[in-house]
Design brief:
- Strand 3 and strand 4 form a beta hairpin.
- Helix 9 runs antiparallel to helix 10, helix 13 packs across helix 14 and helix 15 runs antiparallel to helix 16.
- By secondary structure, this protein is α/β, with parallel strands linked by helices.
- It is built from 21 helices and 8 strands.
């Protein structure tokens, strides 16, 4: 049995493990708890009529496609009796299911079972892939669209056919309508493709220009909203500036371990594998460019993000590199499949196995933490919403959109503001059952509800006074309970 056959067997084994990972994604208890606080935003948004949903999306910092897809999917699955959160979680698993089918067909056919299997498995256990496939957000779909755009890119290099150019254009536009960092990765794909054409196929530059123009035209419906969002981000946003640690973590994010040293080690391992491939494979420059293009795209995404962060405003959040990381793992899988020297392959594979083992360990540990935190947070909210004698105060305007969907389950007070993500609060009062209060009225609310259990949700710092006790904190979200005292009553009477 030759080396290639052993690779095939390994690839099929990896793919079988990926199918098991898919089954666990579907059955995972993570599908019934919140694993990231942004999921609260999704839940509230899906309780709104479509036009209101688009208005608030425009006032946020994300494009609209995922939310529209979610609205359709939730309506389709409603007759099945699925609750909203579970439906959204399954919607996020679907891209991994599509990726497995795509791997077993297109990628296997174009490359090998080894490439298909290693790629599929890496997307289940490496970096933060798994948690994004069970998160009620847009990232799993961004991963899928970026992969499809990259495969179209590779087909353009191999076939130079019109179909591949059309697919690249369509999937790149879908990236931009799904998540803006996916759009940056799509932009990196186009830049690397332009470099390729300048070096090897200058006569195709005109087609490249037409593709870019077509993508721009298809994005016109949202472009003015994007400009408005950029103006908002430019004035104020929470992302910190670029540091050396940010760059190192970005370079090693494809093998995420939440550790600076590990990120540096992962980047070194990647460099070693590139060196081994370059030195052992006797191929021409064009084929080498093709094989290593995914690495260029990953680095291009980081470089573009740094440039935007320096020139405009910091935008580089490491976890936003998740779609580009998928391209990198497909490229790593292709590189390993093309190393024919047995000794060099075993060395390279050994290094990747180290990353895979670490990735599996980190994924298991992370999933366990996410579940425990999700259960604890669910218990806190259940205690509030299932208490018929409860009052919930949302003290931070940033958090209103995250917890407004609970307003029909408890007596809720939200800070009185004119607009929320561009939506008039009067309109939100028509959809949700909540009351507004002025910033200095919290003590008055508690004084008027001494016979009730009053809870406060705040951001970062609890709203503490002599009668408020913090009962839980998940990330930056703080849950407090008010215990009225005689002093409080006297102060506010």
């Amino acid at each position: 049995m030759g080396t290639y056959s052993r690779k095939d067997i390994a690839g099929i084994t990896f793919f079988a493990m990926s199918v098991l990972a898919l089954c666990y994604m579907i059955l995972s208890p993570l599908n019934h708890v919140i694993v990231h606080y942004d999921e609260y935003f999704t839940l509230t948004l899906l309780n709104l009529p479509v036009m209101d949903m688009i208005t608030i999306t425009a006032g946020d910092v994300h494009p609209p496609l995922y939310y529209l897809m979610a609205e359709v999917f939730v309506n389709i699955t409603k007759p099945l009796g699925w609750d909203l959160l579970f439906s959204l979680k399954i919607l996020s698993v679907i891209p991994y299911f599509i990726i497995l089918i795509f791997s077993a067909t297109k990628i296997r056919k174009d490359f090998s079972w080894f490439t298909a299997g290693l790629f599929s498995l890496s997307l289940a256990i490496m970096t933060e892939f798994f948690s994004h496939f069970v998160r009620a957000r847009m990232y799993s779909w961004a991963i899928l669209f970026v992969i499809l755009a990259f495969v179209a890119f590779m087909d353009i290099i191999k076939k130079e056919d019109r179909k591949s150019w059309i697919l690249l254009t369509i999937f790149s536009v879908l990236c931009a309508y799904t998540q803006y960092f996916a759009a940056i990765t799509a932009g990196s794909i186009y830049l690397i493709l332009l470099i390729y054409l300048v070096k090897f196929k200058k006569e195709k530059i005109r087609t490249w220009v037409l593709s870019v123009m077509a993508a721009a035209i298809l994005y016109i419906p949202w472009v003015f909203t994007l400009i408005s969002q950029l103006e908002t981000v430019h004035h104020t946003y929470w992302i910190p500036g670029i540091t050396l640690s940010t760059i190192i973590n970005a370079l090693g994010y494809f093998a995420y371990n939440n550790d600076l040293v590990f990120s540096a080690a992962a980047a070194i391992i990647l460099a070693v594998i590139i060196f081994i491939y370059s030195k052992t494979e006797n191929t021409d420059e064009k084929n080498r460019f093709f094989t290593l293009s995914g690495i260029m795209i990953y680095l291009g995404t980081i470089i573009l993000s740094i440039i935007i962060s320096v020139v405009f405003r910091p935008i580089l959040v490491i976890r936003y590199l998740i779609p580009a990381s998928a391209i990198l793992w497909l490229t790593i899988s292709i590189i390993l499949s093309r190393i024919e020297n047995r000794k060099m392959f075993l060395i390279s594979m050994g290094l990747i196995v180290i990353l895979l083992i670490s990735g599996l360990s980190t994924t298991i540990s992370t999933n366990d933490d996410l579940y425990k935190n999700g259960v604890a947070q669910k218990e806190v909210l259940d205690n509030i919403t299932q208490d018929s004698n409860s009052v919930l105060i949302v003290s931070n305007p940033h958090l209103i959109m995250y917890f407004l969907h609970l307003s029909n389950l408890t007596d809720m007070y939200c800070l009185n503001i004119a607009q929320l993500f561009g939506e008039n609060m009067t309109r939100l009062h028509q959809v949700f059952d909540f009351k507004s209060y002025n910033g200095n009225d919290i003590n008055k609310i508690t004084a008027n509800n001494t016979d009730k259990n009053v809870y406060i949700i705040s951001w970062n710092d609890p709203v503490l006074n002599s009668s408020t006790v913090q009962i839980d904190k998940r990330g930056n979200i703080v849950f407090s309970k008010v215990t009225p005292t005689n002093a409080t009553l006297t102060t506010n009477s």
